[in-house]
## 1
Amino acid sequence: MSLSDKIMADMKQAMKDKDKVKLNTVRMIKSALMNEKIKLGHELNADEELTVLNREKKQREESIAEFAKAKRDDLVEETKKELAVVEGYMPKQLSKDKLDKIVKETIEEVGAKGKSDFGKVMKAVMPKVKGRADGKQTSALVRDHLN
């Protein structure tokens, strides 16, 4: 089942269940995917869909942080529910051990010796973990291994 088919099915189910949060979130995802399709001028491939989902996830994470700073607990809870819906469409996240292994292998592949090779390692590791690991967590691991 393609992502667009899954989104349509989930949207119908959310309507039947009268789940407003899920319905609104799924509609936002569908809209973001459609906008990206129009912008690029072709059907989205899996990589492009993942990029859109990552963008939606990041927006919600940033919103949660801002709402928490403003002490708007009602909006924090709402946004956390939206984030859970978005994460449901994303691939399974890598465990810390698997991510650590990928980082170590990549460092060996590129022959990195120290901190100066950080950019080279990140450039090589990010395509391997795209959508399956947080960029901040990945960069922290790379930095730790290069020190």
## 2
Amino acid sequence: MPQPNAAPAAPAAPVMLVARQPILDREQKLLGYELLFRAQAEDREARITNRDAATARVLLHAFVDFGIKRLVGESLAFVNLTRNLLLNHQHLPSSGKQVGLEILEGQKFDAELVEAVRTLAGRGYTIVLDDFAFGDGGPALEALLGLAHMVKLDVLAHDAESLAATVQRLRRHPLKLVAEKVQTREQYERCLALGFDYFQGYYLLRPENVAEATLGESRINVMRLLAAIENPATGPDELDAVIRNDAVLSYKLLRLVNSAYFALPIKVKSILHAIVYLGLGRVRGWVRMLALAGLEDRPAELLKTALVRARMCEQLAARMSRERQEMAFTVGLFSLLDALMNAPMETLFDKLPLPEEVRAAVQRGEGPLAPLLDEALACERAEWDRLAEGGAHAERLAHAYLSAVEWAEQVYGFAGAQAAAA
């Protein structure tokens, strides 16, 4: 019961949903992430119209509450800014060394804005003109093009002819071009031919050529390993034998479990010891991850995305049985198996003796694990309207996603080093 003289409770801070989308260079290496966000406030209209407040909250959340290093590592973080925040740049972090500021389309381009952008560029911020289109910007637009480091072009907003013409015109300026909303491999190849420097979009998450894909020798070996560990008849002794038959995998796994990441109180001396100490399901999960990390010709961000999905699905399954939690991890990890292996999902799953709940969730979007993957995908793609609105569930999703991002960065950092050392 509240006390009569108690001060009124402060309103709860709005839950911030944050997603990140990678921006890659021509070699599929990471430049940085665009941070996408939405506050889960009760006032839906305010959430839409008050873009300045939303941007300020995500900057505060990224830099202070969560920590920019945990969210994007050593890469750049890109955020959208309105004219008002650009002009009131004293509210932004003093150093922009790791931050790209995307100037939104439709802003009023004038001398005041140019001067603010000049100041921010001097503080180390990477200046980006977002959703760019040549219009009646006059001298201010030309000045901004001179200050900008990058220009983003929405490939879905242009036909082939206008996109090529815009690229040719922009090449008069010493800046980098980003193709955004690249959805298909064909669009990516077209933008690559046009000379774009960076790429952003869902093309990365799709196989390159599903219709003609064939498994090379390295992928056949990975599939053999996955089939062996997914076999329900594979117990501790059988899994020990499977791993020990692959000297490189044995070395990677023992280094992993004895690393500072696990900080185990004992030294694990053998694969069987690891299975007994950590559990069969946990070791299976690490072997899946290490096997896929060995696919050197696939972009690093692809496996990172799969790891984020896997960890998030596992966390969202926290109230389920331990067996279901392990299956949820597999659902997230294998949701990108076709892109990682560059082969049709049906072909791959036909070769793996997976539980029906895993197959149903990944292939058909059905069963008790499917909603977990659906929510992970919605967070990843910043499709906020697909998520439950408000309340504890929104907060749980926000924390699960950010925690999964941090976990994936740490784990991939170790797995990538292991793959390189093998």
## 3
Amino acid sequence: MTPEASTPLATPAPAVTPPPPIGKPASRPALTDAQGGELLNRLLPAGIPDRKGWNADIIGAFSHLKIPYTPKYFCAVLAVAEQESGFSPDPVVPNLSKIVWGEIEQRRQKYLIPGFVVDAAMQKKSPDGRSYKQRVDALRTKREMNALFEDMVRELPFGQTIFEHKNPIRDGGPMQVSVAFAETHVRAWPYPYRYAGSLRDEVFTRRGSVYFGSAILLQYPAPYSQMVYRFADYNAGRYASRNAAFQQAVARLSGRKLALDGDIMLYRDKMNRALSGEASETQKALQALSGRLGMSADDMLRDLRLEKLSGFAQTALYQKVFALAGARAPREIMPQIVLVSPKFTRRLTTEWFARRVDGRYQSCLARAGA
């Protein structure tokens, strides 16, 4: 779930590794593909469309990503897929046509393009035989919207201008996977399937969305006590739950009010971890604590650059902050992020998302008797 205006994209790990066990290590031997498929079939909710296809795509993703076949991991992926799409391979977005027309108009005004120019261009026949106006009016899913924007950027005279030479659709498929994450992940862990078109197009398929969604959710080491914090990270970005707890500790030590959003630094490009050059409020609070921490600004910056990686928890800065905060200071909390998107008609947050997914996760575990 990656709303257009607020949620940080999941960040890549340069060295991708299988996730560690959550809770107690399993004492039983690893399941075979056939055994994993049987277990997954018991966990899939009754009545979902193409049950066999969902089973095959999830088993394929887990096999290639080296994620163990366990009820907890299967249920985590199933819970996210159910929350994001209700297991629809191409979920319908209400009022999508209205949203897209609003986006086009907003960008037309931004770039001072006369309305009659846009109106005339939208009457042009598109590659699928319909006019662009007809396609916008008929939009129902993000997959259709992605294909539409690809054609508009490529073919319309104002397309590259108002869409800034790129497709504005950032995520899709039944697990609402970030396209940027997929493009980064394949550089560290090659995508195992052949596909027609672009990797972006593959993200909008069930197979691609399940594969990259499983990777975002599970294929990184995180020392969380409960799966719900991975669900929060799925929405807010990897390690957001850990980093929000770090921000809370810094806020209490410094006496400053900080946003507990899991983003310790300010970024120009989060996916590639390119810093903006400005100090965040958390950095400023840490600088005020430099004497108590016994660390220079350069030393702190060195450690803060690791905030999106597992190794941040082993840095001197992290360890010294929690040494001052005390053993009772939590190491994981819900990131406090309000989700903003034209798709939403009420106030939603990352915590709302994580709790909703966790409810589905617990129901799945009950089906497993776990």
